[in-house]
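G., the chain you wanted modeled:
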Amino acid sequence: MKQSFEITQKNTPPYQGNGAIPFPNLPVGTPGLPLGIVQGAVTQQAGQQILAGVGAQLAMLNPAFAGLIPGINDFLTNPANFATGTSGNFVAFDLLARQPFGNLNNAPQASLRKEDTWEFGYVGLIADKLRITFDVYNRKIDGEAIVSAISPSYGLQGVDRIGSDLGSGVAATLTPYLIQQLTPLPPALPAPVEQIAAQIAGAYAAGYTQAGDAFAQAIATLANNFLIGTIETQNVPDNGVTHVAAGYRTFESYSYTGMDLGLEYFLNSDFSIFGNYSYISDNMFTPGIKGVEGSTSLRALSIPQNKYRLGANYGPALGWRANLSFQHDDSFESLDGQFSGTTDEKNVVDLGIGYKFENGLTINLSSQNLFDSEYRAFPGMPKIGRRSLITLTFDFGN
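Predicted structure as tokens:
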């Protein structure tokens, strides 16, 4: 592996403010975001405001402290005096599978997978009134292969602590300097070192967390979108572009059982009510990884465990026609790269109204998600709201 922790803006949304974060390469094993980087960014973006506030606070404590302000400002703006230590935690993860990164050395090459499926079903009409469709099935999958990252990417967790950690770091580096500067003062002047350090630290913490701070917004964007850095493998091109090497991992077998039930009752030849229900026994699995003893990985079918639809249809041969239905889909976990996460629960009402003329012309007006209950099919995808459609159909064989 390359001996550097390469921080990159590749594959992340554009930033607000200055449009970039001044990240250098960091040594492998760096536990979190260096506070010196944070202090440098905050000083650059809000330094004048902070330093003016520091001067006002010192003057309020004692006018005699005014002579200390230039020296304190020089100390705070000198990169050599920036806070040490880190904040948050860099966590290695698989960029493609959106899971914790695991060592896949000696994993076998991908091969054809095997699937064993059995299914039993029934379709029938009882007393010319009740139509029943039913099936139950089992699916066993052995040797499924998915694309997986070989080199780790890094996400940053604990970003909510960065502001307070910055304040503590600034206080820790500033306190010895304040003691040195305040000690020679006449005994009549108090030397509230801790009070002064706390006020300055609070100003820096506020400078990071204040609304609209570009650096804080960029860090939050990176944290929400996972990718903040990578460790590249030695065999990727050295062309200035950050690369995440990928390969395959192959899973041991896993299985699940499903069931579908459909009922439709005909009150007469034109009007019916119906209900459909689908169920699967599980949609999340932790199969072993072939060739990596004792290792497992999370797999997701990316479909709801329960979903149902209820409604009614009115459809005479000619004249007015209509349909109304309600659909519910459970929320589920998705592991599909950038579209990974918990999906929205789906509850939508669909309505359709139309009219068929004797000459074969049919006009239909349909509205899917009538009440505009917005949801995302997968995390990161656009929201889906109401969709309305008017269609004209002409049947030449009428």
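Residues 1-22 have pLDDT under 50 and may be disordered.

Shout if anything looks off.
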